[in-house]
Amino acid sequence: MSKNFVDFERPIFELEAKIDALQNVSHENDVNLNEDITRLKEKSRQLTASLFSSLTPHQVLKIARHPDRPYTHDYIQGLFTDFDELQGDRFTSSGSAIIGGIARFDKQPILVIGHQKGRGTKQKIHHNFGMPRPDEYRKALRLFRLAEQFHLPVISFIDTPGAYPGIKAERHNQSQAIANNLKVLSQLRVPIICIVIGEGGSGGALAIGVGDQVLMLQYSVYSVISPEGCAAILWKDATRASEAAQAMAITAPHIKALNLIDDIVPEPLGGAHRDVAQMMQNLKEVLRHKLAQVMHYECDELLNVRYQRLMSYGALQSDVT
Length: 321
Hints:
This protein is α/β, with parallel strands linked by helices and 321 residues long. It contains 14 helices and eight strands. The chain has helices at 10-29, 34-52, 57-64, 72-79, 120-126, 134-149, 167-171, 174-187, 202-206, 227-235, 241-248, 252-257, 276-294, 299-312; strands at 81-85, 98-105, 108-115, 154-160, 192-201, 213-217, 221-223, 263-265. Strands 1, 2, 3, 4, 5, 6, 7 and 8 form an eight-stranded mixed β-sheet that branches. A hairpin with a 2-residue loop joins strand 2 and strand 3. The termini are far apart.
């Protein structure tokens, strides 16, 4: 049982602690407590289902940031084979907030790329908490060009609070690096599938998030700014993040209703971190279907469909005749 939980998961955590204690007693003392354990497991399942049936946007955000939630590297290990990581932008640094390389998905050669947050203090610092700098977007751009050169479909995993907001990043043309990626991705002559697996934060997410199919995991979020940042700007009070999250419509069902994504990938009961193996299976099935769908197009047709898709964002329907 994980020791990491967010505030509203505490009742579930306490029940699971009781289950673990009973299992230990049963094992150490050779006592049959199966009936009690089964009853508590069912109670835990029902409680989890009840709590997760009515999550607020801010609670979904907490699940999207859960420290046990699978990251890009976990999905690479769970979904792909023969992964060969490629590093560096060939100018300044190797970069580690974005990882990527060539792999196989069901024997199909692909290029996989995504944000990596890291676990534990050393890893988080090494990966800059999943916040890319300009050189890392240029590394991503190099990999996108490589995919185009070798006719490899691109699968992109999005999970970042946003682009790194430091002064050095601005001096190194952060906005230009992001904008250039948007331009190149919109015209890239290979299929692109993007999946928001945790946080989809602003331009930091969009820089690797332009695709022919854009998916969101059930308890992921996508927003132009973090709720804390929004609250700090609007009300000068970051503690009002819950109100901001509600107003910003950051959850997958809201984003789907706005036609900004194509599908929502269901997560196991309680979130991806509760059953990583099941999450991998769920996503693998969806990816198989989506990859077959986008690879069906001829290149020019693919680009035309992508262009029409991008032009449809923000379109308004009028009842005026």
